[in-house]
TrEMBL record:
It is found in: Periplasm. Coiled coil: none annotated. This is Cytochrome c3-like protein. Gene3D superfamilies: Flavocytochrome C3, Chain A (1.10.1130.10). GO terms for molecular function: metal ion binding. InterPro entries: Multihaem_cyt_sf (IPR036280), Tetrahaem_cytochrome (IPR012286). Keywords: Electron transport, Heme, Iron, Metal-binding, Periplasm, Signal, Transport. It comes from Shewanella fodinae. Its main location: periplasm. One of its GO terms (cellular component) is periplasmic space.
Amino acid sequence: MKSLFSCSAVMAMLLAFSSAVMAGDTLVSQGKMMGRSYHQQLYTKHQCATCHGVDKPVSRAADNSCLKCHSVDKLAQKTARKGDEQWQNPHNNLHYGKDVPCTECHGEHAVKQPICKDCHTFKFSKFKE
């Protein structure tokens, strides 16, 4: 399973760096780098160490950084679907349950696509690229 995530992560990174910014106003300049408009307070108050654990990060933030503010259970409730689409929930899906690493689908500093798009064509209308 780790190799699936690694392969998907590499593919997602390649897509993110090769595509134009399509996330509207959610990916904006945060001074020296791009960042999400809804995380503005992280850039003005706390800087990189809040999520990455160090002032000059060289890798993605760990999921536990995201989970300090975002509850997987609440996200799963917000993105729940009904009927035949029940397991198309990106935060509680048929393949991984609630165990998909946040950065498999979400990028703070660059556009990313959900890992589901590697194989599936259904859409997530509320997805923040």
